[in-house]
Structures are given as structure tokens and as C-alpha cells.
């Protein structure tokens, strides 16, 4: 067991780095997607809901396989060396898969928290003029 400790520690470092990076990317994506859902632009909402349905409705392992092995099926991608290098990198493919999957679930969480704020509170914030300052629903969203 101790003979393999250096390899295990290297794997631990890779796992922790991948986890931290995917959490950051997923948080940024989920905030963007939540804003899109709250704006209620029909086409964008439809696209985001389709994305959420796709990534929450399929197993993560299938997503990882499709992201890693899928683009390699298109030989025309090899004509673009930078793009080919990015999609053939296992760590980056794992980052993309984990980030997109986590962002889908986190978007649902954030959007549900915003929808849980009572309409009366939104109306009172609009009446008080706080919505223009970007503070609408902050206390209630934090409590949820």
C-alpha cells in the first residue's frame, strides 16, 4: 500500500484540482443560466431548459464518454490543431462534463430559490425602488 502512496497523492491532487475548477466554472455558468431564465426571453429560456433537461436526464458517466469520445468521431476536427488538442485532453473533457452537469443542477437550485420568493415581496421591492439597485429578493434568497 505504501508503495503506491505517491501515485495516490498525485491522483488526489488531480481530483481536487478538477473538483475545484469544475465548481468555479459551474457556478459561473449557473448564474448566467439563472439570469437567462429570470429574463423570460422565450428562445433563450427554451434553450436553457433543453440544456437542463439533457444534462439532468442523462447519467454523468454517459456525458463524460460522449464528451471525451464523441468529437474524435469527426475527422474534420483534426484540421484545427488547437481545437483538436483541447478536445483530446482527458482532464479538460472531464472539466467540461463535470461543469456542464453541475451547472444544470445548480441552475435549477438557484432558479427555484428565486421563484420561492413571494410575489408580494417583489411588489414591495418594486414599490420601494430597491429593484433598480439590484437588491430585489436578496434576504429571502440567502435564507433559502
From TrEMBL:
Gene3D superfamilies, alphabetized: MetI-like
Residue ranges occupied by any ABC transmembrane type-1 domain in the UniProt entry: 12-144
Topology of the protein relative to the lipid bilayer: Multi-pass membrane protein
Transmembrane segments: 20-39, 51-70, 82-100
Gene Ontology biological process terms in this record: amino acid transport
Coiled-coil parts of chain: none
Keyword Transmembrane helix: yes
GO MF assignments: transmembrane transporter activity
InterPro entries in alphabetical order: AA_ABC_transptr_permease_3TM (IPR010065), ArtM/GltK/GlnP/TcyL/YhdX-like (IPR043429), MetI-like (IPR000515), MetI-like_sf (IPR035906)
GO cellular component, one term: ATP-binding cassette (ABC) transporter complex
Location in or out of the cell: Cell inner membrane
Keywords carried by this UniProt record: Amino-acid transport, Cell inner membrane, Cell membrane, Membrane, Transmembrane, Transmembrane helix, Transport
NCBIfam families attached to this UniProt entry: HEQRo_perm_3TM
Family in the record: Belongs to the binding-protein-dependent transport system permease family. HisMQ subfamily.
Protein name: Arginine ABC transporter permease protein ArtM
Naturally occurring in which organism (per UniProt): Raoultella terrigena (Klebsiella terrigena)
Gene field: artM_6
Amino acid at each position: 500500500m505504501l508503495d503506491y502512496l505517491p501515485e495516490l497523492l498525485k491522483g488526489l491532487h488531480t481530483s481536487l484540482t478538477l473538483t475545484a475548477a469544475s465548481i468555479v466554472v459551474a457556478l459561473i455558468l449557473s448564474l448566467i443560466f439563472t439570469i437567462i431564465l429570470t429574463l423570460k426571453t422565450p428562445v433563450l429560456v427554451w434553450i436553457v431548459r433543453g440544456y437542463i433537461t439533457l444534462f439532468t436526464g442523462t447519467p454523468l458517466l454517459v456525458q463524460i464518454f460522449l464528451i471525451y469520445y464523441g468529437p474524435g468521431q469527426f475527422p474534420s476536427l483534426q484540421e484545427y490543431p488547437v481545437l483538436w488538442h483541447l478536445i483530446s485532453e482527458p482532464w479538460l473533457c472531464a472539466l467540461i462534463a463535470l461543469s456542464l452537469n453541475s451547472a444544470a443542477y445548480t441552475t435549477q437550485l438557484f432558479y427555484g430559490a428565486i421563484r420561492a420568493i413571494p410575489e408580494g415581496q417583489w411588489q414591495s421591492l418594486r414599490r420601494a425602488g430597491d429593484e433598480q439597485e439590484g437588491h430585489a429578493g436578496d434576504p429571502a434568497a440567502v435564507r433559502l
